[in-house]
Amino acid sequence: QVQLVESGGGLVQPGGSLRLSCAASGNIFRLGLMAWYRQAPGKQRERLAATTTIGTITYADSVKGRFTMSRDNAKNVVYLQMDSLKPEDTAVYYCNAPRILTTPDSRYLEVWGQGTLVTVSS
């Protein structure tokens, strides 16, 4: 009943920018906290950015100052603006909603997007 769909990935040169989108759809009463993750070849899944219970956004050291997370609560869309991209940013990027509240059944769900591939290369 609930789905997250990432978009915006692709091939970009080092130093370039991309903006990823994560659109949530379905019987959602409250989207709740959101997070962006990535998984690069040979590495574990890494949390990049996440909203907090006090309304702030935390960032991993690897992307701090280069990536910016934002959201449009009215549209249930979350964004990840990625600037100054590096080859080591190459990964599959995922959005995650750990505690979506559904309607009308008032269930809490964790939902992951399918991922979008970002390749940073000359």
Describe this structure in words.
By secondary structure, the protein is mainly β. It has no helices and twelve strands. The protein has strands spanning 2-7, 10-12, 18-26, 28-30, 35-39, 46-51, 57-59, 67-72, 77-82, 91-102, 108-112, 116-120. The strands form two sheets. Strands 2, 4, 5, 6, 7, 10, 11 and 12 form an eight-stranded mixed beta sheet that branches. A four-stranded antiparallel beta sheet has the order 1-3-9-8, with no helix packed on it. A hairpin with a 4-residue loop joins strand 8 and strand 9 (77-82). The chain starts with a strand and ends with a strand. 25% of the residues are buried.
Summarize the structure.
With 122 residues, the chain is mainly beta. It has strands spanning 2-7, 10-12, 18-26, 28-30, 35-39, 46-51, 57-59, 67-72, 77-82, 91-102, 108-112, 116-120.
Count of individual helical segments:
0
Q: What proportion strand?
A: over 45%
* Rg of Cα set: 14 Å
Count the beta strands.
12
Q: What are the key terms here?
A:
122 residues, mainly beta, 8-stranded mixed beta sheet, 4-stranded antiparallel beta sheet, 12 strands, elongated
Task: Describe the protein's topology.
Layout: E1 2-7, E2 10-12, E3 18-26, E4 28-30, E5 35-39, E6 46-51, E7 57-59, E8 67-72, E9 77-82, E10 91-102, E11 108-112, E12 116-120
